[in-house]
Amino acid sequence: MRNTSRNFYLIPYVLWIILFVVTPLFLVLYYSFFDIEGHFTLDNYKKFFTTVYLGMTLSSFWYAFLITLFTLIIAYPTAYLLTKTKHKQLWLLLIILPSWINLLLKAYAFLGIFGTYRAANSFLKMIGIGSKQLLFTDFSFIFVSVYIFLPFMILPIFNALNELNPSLVDAAHDLGGSSWTTFRRVIFPLTLDGVKSGCQVVFIPSLSLFMLTRLIAGNRVITLGTAIEQHFLVTQDWGMGSTIAVFLIIAMVIIMIVTGKKVVSKVL
Amino acid sequence: MKDNIIIRFEHVTKQYDNDPPVLNDVCFEIERGKFYTLLGPSGCGKTTILRLIAGFIGPSQGNIYFNGKIINHVPANKRQVNTVFQDYALFPHLNVFENVAFGLRIKKLKNAEITEKVKEALRFVNLKGYENREISEMSGGQRQRVAIVRAIVNEPEVLLLDEPLSALDLKLRTEMQYELRELQRRLGITFIFVTHDQEEALAMSDEIFVLNNGKIEQSGTPTDIYDEPINRFVANFIGESNIVSGKMIKDYVVEFAGKTFDCVDKGFNPNETVEIVIRPEDLEITPKDQGKLQVRIDSQLFRGVHYEIICYDQDGNEWLVHSTRKVKVGDEIGLHFDPEAIHVMRLGETEEEFDKRLENY
Ligand SMILES: Nc1ncnc2c1ncn2[C@@H]1O[C@H](COP(=O)(O)OP(=O)(O)OP(=O)(O)O)[C@@H](O)[C@H]1O
Ligand SMILES: [Mg+2]
């Protein structure tokens, strides 16, 4: 009885998955085998393995890696300090809050801040470095991406730290561990799952960023996401766009398996 | 200062924010190589004392000495003390071997030496062959032993144990009480053991500290504390007792339940109001006319080794009797007891005053 009623509640969920996840996946796979005139072909896959697209893939991964790395470096200490504060849930809320604001709005805000005659440059001038080209550089692209992804990294790490049994930390000190040893041998390994899910939710979306690359990086940074967008909206080559998407999806699945929790990897 | 004293608390107070102090002006000394028990109800500050000794927290006032030196500001990882935690606090990401090896690896011992020590220590507590088990694959009793080994493998001078047996079932618990006591004798190091179970405390300790509300009510050997509780709290907390109020007529003569009795206590003011303690196993059931007290049986409960009998005298005082003989509820019986069975307590007497009174006589 319990099983059938549970299945009943699952119906909307299953419908949703079929309509908006499974079907699009098959459509993408289907389109990837057709050229721009609608003839069946494997050319798209051959083209993907040319230097242009492989280079694009490489740079996508490189930027996603950098973004994830910097986000992690900032997020872990922040999350750690948060768990030590008195009103930690309130502070957490304040940090999460910006992620509720539309991505485009934030991107435009940075356009304003980083513009040649705007706040950031005035500040650089004031401290004596002088005016710099900030917009449309790798730096600004990574900076803004890190800013945007930060809450998504902080949240899982914060949760992992918060759930860590404090007597384990006491035990490590008790057995002679300095603060650093305790961090390296107990705190970090036990919050690794949080770090992994944080990296997952940052790395995967950064692989396919395209609005930011256009607005902040001025299309100087070409990622797989940008390429897909161009093919679908500009060149109308849906076949090639889909092919890139197929590879992107494969990459994402691999990342999920590698960074996923033990349970996930066992099931797969 | 005696050099067999390893730990000394000197007027230690611990207070969080503006709450009432958790520990209030606590003083005690711990001698090397003995088995100490901190006994008291939940929230009385037992864990707090252990955490102060281990160095996880510092005192708000007063000093803690270790081997004669003040250690208030020595961090936990620099103290010759190891802890067995209330919840064991075994590292879930490490297997049994690595849990036990944790402290040795920090000391940077050679791998071969670590392997040897860990194996030897595991054999010591009958956990040979469990090296590669995950913690989640161990039973409660086994985890508890891993926690103990993880601490003693570092050869601490003092081992702190925070209610290590409270999660075990009765049988395993009794078994572990023997094992722990035996372990302490073999290792010869000082154990400070925390429990709120009085039987456990009486069975295991060389010395017991009875705590209440952040204060030490009484300290002494199990027999001292059992036979001569200093006040109503200790008498009630350690074992079951009959406590009635009475009057000390003069030395060796006390009045309660409307009669006078010979006793062995002295040093009170004439006609001072006192409290009398008689342990239920010291009361003997006799025919009505042969007893020192006449009571009516109210109820009877079979407890396995004995009957627990509740009676009332004509003044309405309740008397709890442990007897192997069965009686009939509603019967009138007599109760007999020796003068030595009567223990007289002065109202509101502190431990120092108590000791002084005994010394003066
Ligand atoms: N970090 C803290 N902040 C405020 N109060 C605390 C803190 N730690 C402990 N206390 C308080 O100190 C008192 C004593 O706590 P402690 O843990 O020493 O009790 P305990 O005797 O070990 O009790 P139990 O038998 O339940 O383990 C309690 O009232 C507790 O609420
Ligand atoms: Mg406790």
TrEMBL record, chain A:
<dbReference type="GO" id="GO:0005886">
    <property type="term" value="C:plasma membrane"/>
</dbReference>
<feature type="transmembrane region" description="Helical">
    <location>
        <begin position="238"/>
        <end position="258"/>
    </location>
</feature>
<feature type="domain" description="ABC transmembrane type-1">
    <location>
        <begin position="57"/>
        <end position="259"/>
    </location>
</feature>
<dbReference type="Pfam" id="PF00528">
    <property type="entry name" value="BPD_transp_1"/>
</dbReference>
<feature type="transmembrane region" description="Helical">
    <location>
        <begin position="201"/>
        <end position="218"/>
    </location>
</feature>
<keyword id="KW-0813">Transport</keyword>
<keyword id="KW-1133">Transmembrane helix</keyword>
<feature type="transmembrane region" description="Helical">
    <location>
        <begin position="12"/>
        <end position="33"/>
    </location>
</feature>
<feature type="transmembrane region" description="Helical">
    <location>
        <begin position="134"/>
        <end position="158"/>
    </location>
</feature>
<protein>
    <submittedName>
        <fullName>Binding-protein-dependent transport systems inner membrane component</fullName>
    </submittedName>
</protein>
<keyword id="KW-0812">Transmembrane</keyword>
<feature type="transmembrane region" description="Helical">
    <location>
        <begin position="90"/>
        <end position="114"/>
    </location>
</feature>
<feature type="transmembrane region" description="Helical">
    <location>
        <begin position="61"/>
        <end position="83"/>
    </location>
</feature>
<comment type="similarity">
    <text>Belongs to the binding-protein-dependent transport system permease family. CysTW subfamily.</text>
</comment>
<dbReference type="GO" id="GO:0055085">
    <property type="term" value="P:transmembrane transport"/>
</dbReference>
<dbReference type="InterPro" id="IPR000515">
    <property type="entry name" value="MetI-like"/>
</dbReference>
<keyword id="KW-0472">Membrane</keyword>
<keyword id="KW-1003">Cell membrane</keyword>
<dbReference type="InterPro" id="IPR035906">
    <property type="entry name" value="MetI-like_sf"/>
</dbReference>
UniProtKB/TrEMBL annotation, chain B:
<feature type="domain" description="ABC transporter">
    <location>
        <begin position="7"/>
        <end position="238"/>
    </location>
</feature>
<dbReference type="Pfam" id="PF08402">
    <property type="entry name" value="TOBE_2"/>
</dbReference>
<keyword id="KW-0472">Membrane</keyword>
<dbReference type="InterPro" id="IPR050093">
    <property type="entry name" value="ABC_SmlMolc_Importer"/>
</dbReference>
<comment type="similarity">
    <text>Belongs to the ABC transporter superfamily. Spermidine/putrescine importer (TC 3.A.1.11.1) family.</text>
</comment>
<protein>
    <recommendedName>
        <fullName>Spermidine/putrescine import ATP-binding protein PotA</fullName>
        <ecNumber>7.6.2.11</ecNumber>
    </recommendedName>
</protein>
<keyword id="KW-0813">Transport</keyword>
<dbReference type="InterPro" id="IPR005893">
    <property type="entry name" value="PotA-like"/>
</dbReference>
<dbReference type="Pfam" id="PF00005">
    <property type="entry name" value="ABC_tran"/>
</dbReference>
<comment type="function">
    <text>Part of the ABC transporter complex PotABCD involved in spermidine/putrescine import. Responsible for energy coupling to the transport system.</text>
</comment>
<dbReference type="InterPro" id="IPR017871">
    <property type="entry name" value="ABC_transporter-like_CS"/>
</dbReference>
<dbReference type="InterPro" id="IPR017879">
    <property type="entry name" value="PotA_ATP-bd"/>
</dbReference>
<comment type="subunit">
    <text>The complex is composed of two ATP-binding proteins (PotA), two transmembrane proteins (PotB and PotC) and a solute-binding protein (PotD).</text>
</comment>
<dbReference type="InterPro" id="IPR003593">
    <property type="entry name" value="AAA+_ATPase"/>
</dbReference>
<keyword id="KW-0067">ATP-binding</keyword>
<dbReference type="GO" id="GO:0005524">
    <property type="term" value="F:ATP binding"/>
</dbReference>
<keyword id="KW-1278">Translocase</keyword>
<dbReference type="InterPro" id="IPR013611">
    <property type="entry name" value="Transp-assoc_OB_typ2"/>
</dbReference>
<dbReference type="InterPro" id="IPR003439">
    <property type="entry name" value="ABC_transporter-like_ATP-bd"/>
</dbReference>
<dbReference type="GO" id="GO:0015594">
    <property type="term" value="F:ABC-type putrescine transporter activity"/>
</dbReference>
<dbReference type="GO" id="GO:0016887">
    <property type="term" value="F:ATP hydrolysis activity"/>
</dbReference>
<dbReference type="InterPro" id="IPR008995">
    <property type="entry name" value="Mo/tungstate-bd_C_term_dom"/>
</dbReference>
